[in-house]
Amino acid sequence: MISYPSAFGLIDAVQATKYSFISVAVWWTIFSLPLIFFVDEPKLHSQESIRDSIKNGLAQFKSTLMI
Asked: Which pLDDT tens digit goes with each residue over 39-58?
């Protein structure tokens, strides 16, 4: 579309780029809706404090770097 905008009835590459972004946004919206509405997320059983969340996140980050 961007390489040959006249093949799609567009004026130039700038207009083709704009339409490309719009078409990608529409595509993501259409194919994301089933995931948003029909996939259940697991519920958390306990609440962590912010301090514990940060501590656990840093520990996971450290273990990722060690591997």
From this structure: 988 877 678 888 998 999 99
